[in-house]
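Recap for those who missed Tuesday's class. We walked through two folding examples back to back. For each one, the amino acid string is listed first and its predicted structure tokens come directly after. Nothing is annotated here on purpose, so try labeling regions yourself before you check the end of the notes.
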Amino acid sequence: MTAALDDAEGTEHAEDAIDVVVVGAGPTGLLLAGDLAAAGLSVTLVERRPRTAANLTRAFAVHARTLELLDARGLADALLSTGQRIDRVRPFGGMPLSLQRLSTRYPFVLITPQYETEKLLERRALSTGTDIRYDSELIGLAQDRDTVTLDLRRTTDGARTTLHARHAVGADGVRSTVRAALGLPFPGQAVVRSMILADVRLTEPPEDLLAVNGNADAFGFLVPFGDGWYRAIGWHRDGRDQDTDPVGLDELRTILRTALGTDHGMHDARWISRFHSDERQVPHYRRGRVFLAGDAAHVHSPAGGLGMNTGLQDAANLSWKLAAVLHGHAPDPEALLDSYHRERHPVGRLVLRISGALVRSVMATGPVRRTARSLGATVLPRIGPARDRALGLVSGIGISYPPPPGARRPAGRRAPDLALAPGPHGQRLYEALRAGGFVLVTPPGRTTPPGAPLAHVHWRTGPRTAARTACVLVRPDGYVAWSAPEPTDAELAAAVAASLLSPATIRTAGPAQKA
């Protein structure tokens, strides 16, 4: 497969093969590159933007599951210090919906600008040895059975570089050059036109931390970052159609007065932009040695604040699988790589449905639809199962994957932050996951499967903790790979061997068994 995207001129040179090239240094690409480099792989991250360019984009909400994944990398506390926690919402004037019901260390939404998340992930990527190349754009991509070849052009002087990699990942956004080079379609439609985003200050802050409302004519949204700035979103049914049309603070004030009854004394916008929102998803997240993640694979409305979170969770799912294959730890490399699409494509489709339903409720016309929306905002908080499922899906806590062949639940489900006996890997599961590999949780006294490259930890015991006899194998992304109530040593060793090869097995494997 080949794709030539440009006939660029300039000096050209080729470089030695590296393990993975990631295209796109947004949150998804940065997390992925940092994970791969932390696993000891050679990683180059390519970004067309200059290093100093501000990236004031529309993402601002970090949900509970994403915070758990950051916790598993030792990053959550640093990000928490940059924003505002919101633990309840009152949609469309309905009853408050408490996020404190979420069974997680992070029962809230963190409101922080996307650039704060990016700064944190960039520091980590650099600290783990990622080669980040800003001012570099992808102009051609080809792959064969063994190698991905990527042609780059430096935007400052036109110099050309060719990279050879064992795998490549396109995390380069909705206008993905990688997706275009693969010839993959991006079917879908525009769902919202002429929505306005801005970061503003307010003279009269709302009584609730999050102010949101919509009516027959307009929708308005205000949420604090915690440092005096607010993210404002406004949409009017009679708004302009083109993203390039001029936009000013007066237009946004008018929309918020229509939707919220007041503009809360909005002033001093540090940036303001008009955009449209699409619902699209690529049919395949993998083609050969190349993968797509984040907005390159799926894009949807900003309703629910799910976009960046879904991309980061794509990255967490893919990174450990690539690392396992490239290090030769995967019993079935192709099946493991294929599982990225099998697990994440349905999640992307679900996110499209959730965000689509939310944005359509915002845009509801007619008294019947608006009454149904108001009734839902009032009734949902009262219905426990429906409320908890909705919170679980939006927060990511309730997302699960199909169990592997031959396995049964809870395999495929998110592992909670289990309490562990004090030891070198910490006192809870997400501390143990910081080692970047599988974690085996057993009662004290169980033997570690010989040669297994994993962290073996034990259940916490004590007067306030019930004795646990189960054994649980947790994947590097915090999902259960296998569990059994009281397995024999042979059953435990077989379960571990089904997920990862030991170094001894790798050394004696023939070429067909290697990645």
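Example two. Treat it independently of the first, because the proteins are unrelated.
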Amino acid sequence: MDAQGRGRGDNIDPADQWVFDPNTGTYELRLDPGDAPAPQPADRRAPAPGRSSRARPEEEAGGSTAVPGSRKGQNGSGSDGDGPDGGTRELPAQRNRRAGNRAAPPPGGTPSRRKPKPKKSAKKKALYWTSGALGFVLVAGCGGAFYLYQQLNGNISKVDVGKENPAVKDGPVNILVIGTDARSGKGNEGYGDAGSVGHADTTILMHISKDRSNATALSIPRDMITDIPDCPTKKNGATRTIPGQHNVRFNTSLGQEDRDPGCTWRTVEKMTGLSIDHFMMADFNAVKELSEAVDGVEVCAAKPIDDPKSHLHIPAGKSLVKGEQALAFVRTRHSVGTGSDLSRIQLQQQFLSSMIRKMKSGDTLTSVPKLYDLAQAATKALTVDTGIGSAGKLVDLAKDLSRVDIKNITFATVPVLDNPKDPATVVLDEAKAGPLFQMIRADHSLSKTKTKKGKGTSDDKKVPQAPADKVRVDVSNGGGPFGAAQETVDWLQNSKAAKLSTNAGNAPTKLAATRLEYAPNQADQAATLAAWMGLPKSALKKTTADAGPMVPMKLILGKDFQGPGKSIEAPTKTPDGVQNVNADDQNVCAK
């Protein structure tokens, strides 16, 4: 691609993608040549997006038009909570060469046989533009999709973590959003430790319900002590396994020992028992650029904050922050709450909730320049897995998740306790975290508002149960009490007459949640065993290929296992003591 051909993927000139729509009097970006409207007389033209309504003479005569320019991309990074001290781009004229340079029919000429498309409202059209490719904004904001220049594909960085899931699926979606504190990137030299490869400084697990009626954004404290499993990583065409570690900070799951986002992915799966579909990783500049693109994000402080370490200076009450002040807000911790990372998490949740509201506001949805800047800033700040490693796949994902109403998006924090062995760290509060993870695995909403029940799919249909003598299963212990596998086999054989059940010993890895793996042609056996054991739907994992007649199902008893036949029921209400707030709550202030 030469310098003049920038953005001309598939021989498409970006200038020709801005098309005047006579129905609205505005220019729109269209990727399908067949969607172009007929050319209009020059005196009926509206100013192109990002331009003043006053056109130069040569423009009125068919000269150049402008499209919204983008800021030059920046990669960003940093560490703890301590900090340092666009314009438009002219493109060739809109030449109305759509659909093979066909001109509009002359007055009184033969009308087009093409059926005109139904008129869309300005707001409806804007919804299809809304950016959000930066992880938490894309999935939490659920603002729909934006049409992108082909060049935006080149903005997106990808990491092959050895798992490639489809961009869109029918069931619940779990997306891991990671904010790295690596200090590389223009303007970030003063953050954190010099030469640091970065950590998982901010991590949010986004769970979007199967019916897309609600979403939960679960913050994971970076200083929580946990176990990191073995992690296969790909680098320079070679794959090697990085050994896991026990009793280390969660944030070391990224960067340290050359770990990639797939290691954080596997760590969260092991901790929560949830299967992750995708990851999105962003840097410091994502916060700065996106807050600039929406002209600032409103935040609230119960008292004035003057933090010399983060350089955050805001008065009591509501303030509009953007750029460096926005980054300072989400990173400050010494001047709020207990001065810990847990207090900082609450600031981050307040900021993200406010940004989601700003992105879904009319001021943003109806501003093409803002949406274009958001698209540029987001994609340049983003690193994703290969399953969503293109603008088109991100658009598909955004459109799928756009049904979630902001009032049904809940931010929560993994419950923890002070670590008696190290006051600078915390440990998982098993009594509260277990039911919380179980609730999310069961696809139950944490939202304080009632949600409409979505339509079921074919998977929800009642499956016939197999007779006891046909149930063939290997039982292994992956986190249950000592001897749980043999206890379960004895119960199945003696109480249920399931003679084809066997003890497979200890599972190779520990699981937070009990899991039953079965093939499509074993669905009737799985239905029988699930009914006996009291397994929730979230525990059932169907493989893609049928199994042979002698191949058993695999029942892996997790940490939630209470005993054979004892139902593993998930709570339907948020456990007491779990910090949570809805994204549409505008009365949250930092204390």
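Answers for example two:
The first strand starts at residue 18 and ends at 21.
The first helix runs from residue 57 to 60.
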